[in-house]
Amino acid sequence: MIDAQRDPVRVPPEPADGDDEPRHRLHRLLRPSSVCVVGASERQGSPGRAVLANLLAAGWSGPLLAVSPRHRSVMGIACERRVRDLDTAPDLAVVAVPPAALVATLTDLAALGTRHALLLPAAGATSQAAHGTGAATPSAATAASALAALGRSLGLRIVGPESLGLAHPAIGLNATVSRSRIAAGSLAIVAESSSVCAALLDFAEGSGIGVSTVLATGAGIDVDVADLLDYLSYDAETRSIAVHLEGVRDARRLLGALRAAARSKPVVVLRAGQACRSDDDPVAPIPVTHTEVLACSDEAFASALRRSGAVAVDSFGELFGAVEWLGAGRRVRGDRLGIVSNGAGLAVLGQDACRRYRVRCAALAPVTIAAVQADDPTAALAADPLAAVPAAPAAAPTEPVSTRVPGIAVTDPGSAGSP
Fold this sequence. Notes:
Layout: E1 14-15, E2 22-23, H1 27-30, E3 35-38, H2 47-57, E4 64-67, E5 73-74, E6 77-78, E7 92-95, H3 102-112, E8 116-119, H4 126-129, H5 140-154, E9 157-159, E10 165-168, E11 173-176, E12 184-191, H6 194-207, E13 211-216, H7 225-234, E14 240-245, H8 251-262, E15 267-271, H9 299-307, E16 311-313, H10 316-327, E17 336-337, E18 340-341, H11 344-356, E19 360-361, H12 366-375, E20 379-383, E21 386-390, H13 405-410
Parallel strand pairs: 3-4, 3-7, 7-8, 8-9, 12-13, 12-14, 14-15, 15-16, 17-19, 18-21
Antiparallel strand pairs: 1-2, 5-6, 10-11, 10-13, 20-21
Helix pairs in contact: 3-5, 6-10, 7-8, 8-9
């Protein structure tokens, strides 16, 4: 039985080196001091080139190391031939090597002292990578488990495989293979699917939305959405979180992390794979993610998700709308919505939508109506919702509302915010 009221076991933040400020256990992953690209390449379209180009374009000012068996330098960055040739251990290793070289690469990174590795798609063929050979394994799930076990044995936290990457624009970190320009802001994006993460970044760029942290977990064999939510609930730079879920391995832990994060900031969740087998279609295949984890779960999970305090959305369009709203940084003060329109018919449609989604409409105060009439004495007004209708009979039905009216409505004491 799922209980959303219980929190996950939260590991206390670790003390920072050289000071008394506590830091989360994923601090050096999500805010690294140094980065190494293993598998740097000059080949156009390769992940090793794309991530190095993004790091340079984002203005990364920390130590930037590179490893390439074929090049002495890539894009002006000197390369070592092997990981073991590096002089220092980077906080974060971004790995884009062939599957056959992955196990040896991770082993060498751990021996060097690196504790966090992000596996890009070039390193993501888990069906082969788990044994470091080109031989196929019985299933991707078995190979992923073997790779996760290797990471645990080495003391190495792994993001991926098949991760789009990690970005923290405020510190000039863009260790992704995304083509989008990622601006700094207060919205965190956490996605299990790299393609969904890339789409959200495209939308954020086009809408002028800045982000605090971006991470696509990919196959999520180690670091997962629950880990990231735990970090983001502490992160002062993050004011809201957008989450995309596919598979659910540990529902109790995930729901606890969602509940903890939602206590301090808005969290919006799009969950894929909800079109599960039903009585109407008993032979329909159950959705499976690329990690072979069942994407759908029972109604108990959906109900617990609603009780966690997070807001569940049902479509990509709704998630885009939520990202746009969260990225704007606006916060409502209550549960009543003010409506401003230039016609009564349009205002009533807004009211109908509120009733459909169980949102209460604000009855605007007389002081608000008086302020609007002072701004435009010719307007005929209705208080609930606010319809500022031009009084002149010849006025066009689409006559614009004064640009000051929405600002006046927002200050209404009975409204939580007016669109």
